[in-house]
Structure formats: structure tokens, C-alpha cells
Design brief:
By secondary structure, the protein is of the alpha/beta class. It is 28% helix and 24% strand.
Length: 347
Amino acid sequence: MPETSTTFPVSPPRAWAEVSLANLRHNYEAVKNHQQGHVMAVLKAGGYGHGIVEIAQELEKSPPESAPAFMGVASVIEARKLAEAGIRTRIYLLGPTCPFEREEIVARGWTPCISSMEEGEHFNQLISDFQQASPTKRLRVHLTVDTGMGRGGFLPDSLLRNIESLDQMDSLELEGIGSHLPSADEDEKFTQAQFEQFDSLVESLGIERFRFRHLANSAGLLGYQSRTTNLYRPGLMLYGISPLPKYQPTLKPVMSLKSRVSLVRELPAGQGISYGRDTVLEKDTKVATVGIGYGDGYPREISLRSGEVWIRGQRCSLLGRVTMDQIMVDVSHLDPVSYTHLRAHET
């Protein structure tokens, strides 16, 4: 009996994601071209799942005159990851921080946003203590104003009452002020009112008081104008998604989710497809089985919602429910297909 070989070809990935840094660059230029001002590249959640370090490194290659002013992150963990990767661009913490995290923020010179007097007083004390051991500049901080998000920040009246006390915190430099838009892609009237409230507040405090003034996320950047802001915080736009549909043609997708066709069969009318038999073929159909499912990140919620994939540059409709590691699609309109690459797509 012949011996069985113990050496086999290395199997390629069954499903994988590809990230285009060229498309990231294209989208960043679209941000810069849409409105003049500074940019904070929002990299939270691991660069929206694209790789926080790789995205930051690519954006940092921009010429000095157009490079991001800040890399915006959600946590000290993400800030540390960028710092340890050698990212030189200033790191901005987009949300409130826990008291036990603040000493590292001070020591590393990251820029926190402050939503309360307690935070301001604690940072002021920490930097004062730090200066006793090693004299340094004041800590640059941004004030956050709650104009309707309800997630953090001083209410406008509270900030007006406390601004002088904040100014008197000798170890802090009130470098910036910002707020956030909860529904810029859904409620134009409310968002316009937010812009007016923010602009009026900044004007009453004195525009010259703050080097950086920021309110607009991607939808705010695309759809609205401000009298006072000079810093924008794009997230979705960088990765190729426009929250306002009319601008989608100006952007390019940074991530493509890919897989392979593993099987192609001719199935007769009346054949059920996938769990639950929600889909029963009405006519003879050429069906391809594709090696990707919800276990790979292809959402189960796409089932029965006009999901599509691209095969050889053509759209192919999803059939039946998404299973854990496979989907079925209609390829009746294609030439013979076998083991070809495809890109997952939902309409």
C-alpha cells in the first residue's frame, strides 16, 4: 500500500478582507477638498475595523501642510497602541476618561476632552504634580459641549458659568472646544439648530480663545456650514462611506470582503435554499455556494434583504439565509463559474 504524503499545498484563506490604502488616500483628499480647515482622522474601533496602526501610518505620510492635526481614538488602549507604533501626530481622546487613566494621558501628552469640572480639576492637579518632578508645558485640553448628543460634555449654560474657573486652572491650556452631532444624516432642522447653538456659544466665549473649534462629523462636514469651526472629524468618509447618499460617488470603499465559489449546481424549480426554506426556487436556477458566512463577518441580517455579491464584475443575488460559513447565490446569468474570487456586497 503506498504511503500517504504528509506534505500538502497550503490552503489559501476561505474568506478574507482586503484594505486599499490608495482608496483611503483618495477619501482623505475628498475630505480636504470639501471644506477648508484642519482634520482629525477618527480611528476609533481599530480604524473602523481596518487596522488602526496601518491607517494612521498611511495618513501620516501626507505632506505637512495637509496632514491630520489629530488622530482621534476612543480609549487610552488605542492611544497607547498608536504611540507605541511610533505615530507622531497628536492623539486626541474622543470621550471621557476614567480617573485611573489620566496620569498616563498627562505623562504622554495626549489631548483629552473635558466634560466636567471634576475632570478639569483632576487633570490640573495631575499636571501640577507632574511638573514638580519634571517641569513641562501645560496640558493642552479641549472642552466638550453637549448640544444634543446626550453622551458627555458641559451643557452650554454650565460652560458659560464655569469658563472663568476653567481658565484659572494654571496647568491646563484650553486649546479647543467641540461638540457632536447625533442626527446630521437624519434631521436637518435639528442639526442646523445645533450648529447655530454651537457657533453662538463659541462667539460668546470668544473665537480667539480656542485654537481648534470642532463640531462636524462626516455628515456635518458634507452637509452643513459653520461660522466658527476650523477642525473636522471625519470617520465614515475616510473609509469610503457617505452618510449623505448624494456624496457616495465621490468616495471609494477602503475594505473589500472576499471569498471563493466552492460549488456550482443546476437546481430545479421547487428546490428550497438554506435554513427555514424561506426561499424556494420558482424556476430552474444555477446556484453557486460561496465559502463565507456570518461566522466570517458577513451579517446574517442580510438574509432575505436583497443581498448581493459581485462575481466577475456582475451582481449576483443572495438566495436564502446566510449560514455560519456559506452562502448561496444565483449565477444563472453568468458564464461557467468555478473557484473564482468574489467580493461580498449588500444593496
